[in-house]
Amino acid sequence: MTSADVRAKGSRTRARRLAMQALYQHEVNPQDWRGIYKQMKASESAKGADLEYFEGLLKDVVADSTRLSSALDEVLDRPFSQLDPVERAILLIGVFELTDRPDVPYRVVINEAVELARRYGATGGHRYVNGVLDKCAARMRTPEASDPGPAE
């Protein structure tokens, strides 16, 4: 992995964190995503983030939230609305990346979501996020998710 790859990975991780915070803010205080984007972009926490990726996540997840939450409802053990708001934001990002960003490996999607949930979600929420997104990956990325990986 080159240093550019490492920087890109870190910048997308930061973009996902910003998107999670922005989606939480959008849920608590509904407003146009553009205003939230401008506010978050100007914040100290935006340093080092891939702002283009962040903008795409925020814009597309807000626009497609009904479709994404419906996809999640198919694998959840309770209504989407009953989940913790932080975990809702994380799951929306994860299912969006699984469905609309085939360039991002499903294992990366799940790992990034689990790390966000571990850091910002409720106690043990990361295990729930992992299980939900694993089920989604099995449905949405069947060939990739069923590939056991390289033989050792």
Give the topology:
Elements: H1 3-28, H2 33-41, H3 51-63, H4 65-73, H5 85-100, H6 106-120, H7 125-140, H8 142-146
CATH architectural label: Orthogonal Bundle
The DSSP helix count reads 8
**Proportion of β residues?**
under 5%
- The Rg value, from CA coordinates, equals 15 Å
Structural class: mainly alpha
Describe this structure in words.
The chain is mainly alpha-helical and 152 residues long. The protein has one domain (3-142): N-utilizing Substance Protein B Homolog, Chain A. Helices cover 72% and strands 0% of the residues. It contains eight helices and no strands. Helix 1 packs parallel to helix 3 (51-63). The radius of gyration is 15 Å and the shape is globular. Mean pLDDT is 90; it is low at 1-6.
